Amino acid sequence: MMQAITYSAAEKAIVDAFNALPFNDKKASYWSDDVTKATRDAIKDFYILEQDYRCCYCRRKVLSKNKGDWQGDHVIARDTHAQFMFEPKNLAICCRGCNGEKSNKNVLRNAKRKTFPVNSDDYLIVHPHMDDYDDHIRWFGQVCAPRKSNKGAKTIEMCGLMRFAADYAGLDTDMNDRRFDELVGQLMTTNSKLEGASILAGLKVYIDNLAN
């Protein structure tokens, strides 16, 4: 979990002006307006340091202060819930890969929520401000598995985290194919050598049948 940004007086003025708008006038496009640039830059600068240069979803480290190497992430997508655009606990940074995979997918148990959800249980995925990542997802090199956690499994699926294992193995495969995900997940959580050997055999058959 991490600390949320505290806005400076100038940044707060921009945020307050947006928050004061009528609900139907709060548009996602305001995020890209020239007037918000300094605030957007401050948000990225803060979370790059707060997250120690790590993506909040895959935890990969990118040692760069270049804001172009990072994506400002709205945990709840601003395109679907513009009213939460500047909520500090709805903000983080993530890598381009996770940002593209997650996109505007719904992360809420109640997708029609109008007020900002402040409890971990309100979210389907591991929340960077409200959850301890390591309680939900475990990494084995390039392979990840949920720690008996529905949130962990949903984050892996929603952010396409099995792509690292596929890239490492040189697999040219559709990452939406659950067979690969399930086999690798089973391999990482098994406590039996016999079962592990069986799963490895299944992975070999899977790989052998992939197109060249």
Question: SSE layout and pairings?
Answer:
Layout: H1 9-19, H2 37-50, E1 71-74, E2 91-94, H3 96-102, E3 137-140, E4 143-146, H4 150-158, H5 163-169, H6 178-189, H7 193-208
Antiparallel strand pairs: 1-2, 3-4
Please describe the structure with a list of short key phrases separated by commas or semicolons:
212 residues; single chain; two-stranded antiparallel sheet; mainly alpha; 36% helix; 4 strands; 7 helices
Give an account of the 3D structure.
The model has no long low-confidence stretch (mean pLDDT 87). The chain has a two-stranded antiparallel ribbon. Strands 3-4 form a two-stranded antiparallel sheet. It is mostly helical and 212 residues long. The protein contains seven helices and four strands; from the N terminus they run ααββαββαααα.
Write a compact overview of the structure shown.
The chain is mostly helical.
